[in-house]
Design a protein that fits this description.
The chain is built from 10 helices and 9 strands. It is of the alpha+beta class and about 300 residues long. Strands 1, 2, 3, 4, 5, 6, 7, 8 and 9 form a 9-stranded antiparallel sheet that branches.
């Protein structure tokens, strides 16, 4: 097995064990190499220091937990193997330039500091240049689905939720041979669970600009606002990784912050599909749009 394959397998194992003890000795034991040889090989293959990478990935998950759960800060620190809240706060501030408490309280979510996982054995997704779009307030007709999940489930299974919701939506078409509209919208919002501090509530509304009179369809208003939109064309199974790259990599250099609101998926060129054939679609064309505010706008609001 070559070095790239060895380190790639090790990275996958690290991702699954970020909440477990991961000292260099632990990781070296798992790999079967001496810790000195493993650290040298990891640096040669990835360009990063092994211990630093593990800490940055743990802090990234901690940051997601702070924004997406109501779990106490001390519990998050312990979950990601920091020996005290003070140690956690010091490391967190170094990576995100904010204390955990202020990071959680901030009205707008700054993605700076989030660290994506290293991928070695598959081609890196090349994200197209995003465009800023000022979306108008608009009325839609849709069906809203809801699911509760933990943070780890959300990151691993968002595609499964999306697939289940669309299958349910398509099953409501009385005629399976009926052609779909050219464009379908999906509004996605994640909220902290009111019943479980470690969970999120996922709301996913599949909608059209006109009422197609499906069972349980309801009218709702979208407030509009500034969005950063990325175009995706590819297999549905790769969409989750695309979204991860958008949030953990692409947005970092764009000097924007996330504001509250729904992310929007706008699926195009569907009018050659029916409710039946869409269930096994092999390629989708979608604009993935994230609600944002620019750093300049944030500065003006604070003045």
């Amino acid at each position: 097995m070559n070095q790239v394959s060895i380190i790639s397998d090790l990275i996958l194992w690290i991702e699954k064990n970020l909440e477990q003890p991961l000292s260099i000795d632990h990781v070296a034991h798992k790999s079967g190499y001496s810790k000195w040889h493993l650290q040298r090989m990891f640096k040669e293959v990835t360009g990063q220091v092994l211990g630093t990478y593990i800490r940055q990935r743990r802090l990234t998950y901690a940051a997601l937990s702070l924004r997406m759960t109501s779990k106490p800060i001390l519990d998050i620190a312990m979950q990601y193997r920091f020996d005290s809240q003070q140690t956690f706060t010091r490391s967190f501030k170094k990576q995100f330039n904010a204390t955990p408490a202020s990071y959680r309280r901030d009205e707008y979510w700054d993605p700076t500091g989030l660290m994506p996982p290293i991928t070695l054995n598959k081609a890196q997704l090349l994200l197209p240049e995003p465009v800023f779009v000022e979306m108008p307030a608009q009325i839609f007709w849709g069906i809203t689905y809801k699911n509760n999940c933990s943070l780890s489930q959300l990151l691993d299974e968002k595609n499964k939720f999306r697939q289940q919701f669309f299958q349910n939506y398509l099953s409501r078409y009385p005629q399976k041979s009926e052609r779909l509209p050219d464009r379908i919208y999906a509004f996605s919002q994640i909220q902290k669970s009111r019943d479980n501090a470690e969970e999120q509530e996922v709301f996913y509304t599949i909608a059209l600009e006109n009422n197609n009179h499906l069972e349980h369809i309801e009218q709702f208003s979208h407030a509009g606002g500034l969005y950063l939109c990325f175009k995706y064309i590819g297999h549905p199974e790769n969409f989750r990784e695309f979204i991860s790259q958008v949030h953990l990599a692409a947005m970092l250099a764009l000097k924007v912050k996330l504001r509250s609101g729904c992310s929007i998926e706008i699926y195009h060129n569907l009018d050659n599909l029916t409710a039946e054939t869409a269930e096994n679609i092999q390629q989708v064309e979608c604009d993935y749009c994230v609600p944002v505010i620019t750093e300049n706008e944030v500065a003006l609001l604070k003045e």
